[in-house]
Amino acid sequence: AVVSTQSTGIDMxxxxxxxxxxxxxxxxxxxxxVKPAIQTVDGQVQSLRFTQLKLKxxxxxxxxxxxxxxxxxxxxxxxEHYVKKLTSIKRRVATVNNVLTNxxxxxxxxxxxxxxxxxxKRTLLxxxxx
Length: 130
What we know:
The chain has about 130 residues and is mainly alpha-helical. The protein has two helices and two strands. A hairpin with a 6-residue loop joins strand 1 (about 1-5) and strand 2 (about 10-15). The radius of gyration is 50 Å and the shape is rod-shaped.
């Protein structure tokens, strides 16, 4: 049997019509199965592109910040020489502090001896006077 389709103007047999319907149903089914996966992947790709854009913006900002830091470092004088001087001064101050501590210990020892000698003399004077 020949069926006439008005939309295409081509005469088709009922078998061809059924094949066409089967192809359309298969296509629709395939689209129904694949479409959610494609939409999910598309959403993930859009999300990834957005994240990549944010990452690019962050990297650009970091680059600008690092360039500013680098330019500031170029303007700063080299402080290493001064740090070495301060370290040397710190060592000398520690040495002087140790010397002063030793002197103080000796003075304290002498002061103790003087006090003992004075006590002996007082004792002798008190003994001779009595």
